[in-house]
Design goal:
This protein is α/β, with parallel strands linked by helices. The protein has two domains: 12-125 and 305-322 and 332-358, no CATH class; 134-301 and 360-422, Rossmann fold, CATH 3.40.50.150. It is built from 17 helices and nine strands. The protein has helices at 12-21, 26-35, 46-51, 55-72, 76-89, 99-114, 132-143, 146-160, 179-186, 188-193, 207-210, 213-228, 246-251, 280-289, 309-330, 333-353, 366-375, and strands spanning 166-173, 194-202, 231-237, 257-263, 294-300, 378-380, 396-401, 404-409, 412-422. Strands 1, 2, 3, 4, 5, 6, 7, 8 and 9 form a nine-stranded mixed β-sheet that branches. A hairpin with a 2-residue loop joins strand 7 (396-401) and strand 8.
Length: 428
Amino acid sequence: MAVSYPPGPMSQRARRSYGAIMVFTWDDLERYIVKAGEKLRHTPGFLDFFRNIGETEKQRIGLLWGALRALVNDQGEEAAIETEGLIRHMPDEEDGHGAIVIRTFAEALRARIYKLEGSGGNLYLDARPPGAQMRAFELLRLRTPLIPFGYAAANRALLDAVPEPTDVTLLDVGIGRGGQTRALLKNPAARRLFKRLHVIGVEPDSSFALGGALELAQENVLRTAAEVGIEVTFAGIPKLGEHLEVEDIAEAEPRGLLLANACLSLHHVGVPGQGSKVGRDDVLGVIRQAGFSRLVMVEPDSNHYDDDLALRFLYAYRHYGTIARSLYSMLSRADASLVWSEFFAQEVRNVITHDGPRRVERHEEVGRWVERLTSRGWAMDTPPELVAPSAAPPGFTVESRDDACRLAFRGVSVLGVMRAKAVEGAAE
């Protein structure tokens, strides 16, 4: 299937370039996906997503694909013209044919071509002062299932790991401002199962960028504990997850039943030799070595870890295109655009524009996380139904399969929740 440029004026230079790179058609995209079969083993039905897209959006993706393939084939000037043409010709607002996603991906490719360092940095450590971003987060938390599903499923998995009332230590890697822990404390089962709860919050020292996340987490958690009548103590470790060591955890004095939680945090652990001290396998090993019996994880179900730009581009379009559809199906146009621009567009730019240490949004498929866990002395034991399927809003489904509970939108898995237990006697 050949694609045509969106209608509108175009310079002769752009037309000449457009013709020069159109050896990369929709058929080329399909052939690439088929050839990448082994790399897609954790994502069945990957090609079906692209085949089921409407014709207008297919044409736009085809042009993006042509620009990307030109870029990886050292035709940077041609790729730049294509992306600039797409940006100029996209509607200002979402039109039901992926306009806002296409524009974001075209801008990300353009930033990569021109090496624009200010585009797509670390969304959290480089955050602007609270304002629009905080409103966008509240919309995500209150008006979409994306955050509530992760919190509810992970907290259910944690509570399910407490067989009887006892003292519990919760190691929360990437605790943020303590939102998930507060939700955990408000669960009626927590008052029955936690005699005392010791929270160890791991969060980088972000007082300048985020107003003191660890301090806010401690304040929020202790205030909620007082409200619900649970005895809670708090210890903070002001570090990135990849810098966490067994000694740090020991100094925080864990006691009782040891449970660990990592919600949307471990995909930020980078690659050794590319700015990261250790890899994510090492972090999983540290948590196990510190004596924790259960680890609960929440992670996006997509592959933005691979260094192959073309593969990463396709995974990212499938993932973020699905997220955008879900936002516009649930929120007003203005609110959906706000959430997209404040959160997900920034992630797209990081995934597509950067390599090396600056690429911090390195998501992996749920199946790949399962492989990592089992290789570091963990065995999967995710409970079969963490969230009732009937709780999903229109368009969403909750699926329990392959050692994880997944949230999907229109058949595309976007988020997975996993629980693993430490295997006694397993090699470190």
